[in-house]
Amino acid sequence: MMTSTLKISALTKRFGDVAALSDVSLAIQPGERVALLGHNGAGKSTMMKIILGLIPATSGRVEVCGAMPGSATARAQVAYLPENAAFHPALTGLEQLRHYLSLRSEDPGQAQQLLDQVGLGAAARRRIGTYSKGMRQRVGLAQALIGAPRLLVLDEPTSGLDPVSRRDFYALLDQFAARGTAILLSSHALTEVEARTDRIVILSGGHLVAEGSLPALRRLADLPVALHVTARNGYAPALMDALPGAILVGGALHMACPQSEKLALLGRIAGLGDKVADLEVLPPSLEDIYSHFSRRDGQ
Amino acid sequence: MITPRRILATAATEFRIARRNRWVIIAMALMALFALVLTAAGSAPTGGLGVDRLSVTVASLTSLAVYLVPLLALLMSFDAIAGEVERGTLPLVLTYPVSRAEILLGKLLAHLAVLGLAVGAGYGVAALAALLTDAGSLAGMPALWRLLWSSLALGATFLGAGYALSSLARRPSGAAGLAIGLWLGLVVLYDLGLLAAVVADNGGWFTTSAFPVALLANPADAFRLFNLSASAATAAVSGVGGAAAVIPLWQSLVSVLVWPLVALALAHAAFRRVIP
Fold this sequence. Notes:
Chain A is an alpha/beta fold. Chain A has helices at about 45-50, 70-75, 95-105, 110-115, 135-145, 165-180, 190-195, 215-220, 235-240, 260-270, 285-295, and strands at about 5-15, 20-30, 35, 60-65, 80, 150-155, 180-185, 200-205, 205-210, 225-230, 245-250, 250-255, 275-280.
């Protein structure tokens, strides 16, 4: 029987009169990569802090690796990368990682290897006070990789990383997921999340407004599909007549239709024969889907 | 559950930070300098007291330690929690399998080590000067040893108080203000207040009943009482130290030993309430 690494049911968190999270339920299985999306203030960081046991929930149940969040059992199996990871500026990267390894009862000798893994090997003996934001982020990443965590909680892990480092970072995550580590990460970079996670969870105003794989969310949102039709020379007016509702943008006809009418419309365009030079179908992007769901709650 | 390995790891890192921030060298130089000045200044009037040179030195060092040890301890500890909150390093460390008690004990161990080096340097210099000028000074060694460990107990008390203030303030600037206030209050103003009360009371109930309790209730005064009443050189000092003659040694000993535990318990209670 497969047991969830993380199980949240009916989680509510109030700060005074303000509800930061309302009735959120979510489960993450071993090896699953889940992206948490939402505006600033949607409740992402609050949810992560509750999972980590840093702040208590107002009501609801949270179970991390079968234990209470923040319990010794849970903390031994959960690794965290905070947004804007910070460290003592007087320590070197190597010293900081040796410290974290000791706290997890791992061999401090692995510190150099971990720093090499995140591309910080050469700066290992420099003080963290001299590091750039991206380098500090990598120290944060290196400490999250210590041991074999069963759950990785990553708050905006790729902020401050360049595109190549981001690719390496997701490759590392894939290795962890392949070994059964469940991953919960929040991000603003929607396009990278699109390709690199199994499931997307959208929070809006403390409510979980959508959850599922990208194709599933796409179906659920039922956003119009955009089509761009390029006419063969001189046939643009003819196509305009044949396709009412289209607008001419730089020689191409732009139109949109609901998902359910997409195939019928494609059929009609195909029927226009060699008047059509090219046809592009643009499904709604993750950005479109994200805005659709995060606006639905009247934000 | 408390694990020595995690406490030692925290202590080693904290000690490294103290060394990098020049705390170790500053504290050692400060104590050594003051001890030397005291030794030089106190070298004249010892002849007729009939006690060895080192015992007299210990009595002077006690007056020095009462001011400097709490000050050093508070200076090292006010940033301990508030600094981590401000830098943003606390949330991450609290997700590690390490308890808040272990974090506090690790910091305490490192800061006590710095304090130990500082008082060791200061007392060592003064003791050496006494031994070089008076061969009979060996008789004062037990007093020196007592001063050394009770200084660490006093240091632990004010370190604990500093951690508690640091947790309550949440910001280093606020914690620094509270720490200075605590030092002024307990080490300077408290004695002045007691003296004023004794003078006004003119030998009444306050002087006979409340005054000894008030001295024992203040960790700095208890430290002074303990060292002076145990020392052969009580006659060499005046002022509040004169009260040492009437308060039993065991009472000041209990105060010296219990205060560090109380301060640490307060620190733990305050740190537990910190939400990162």
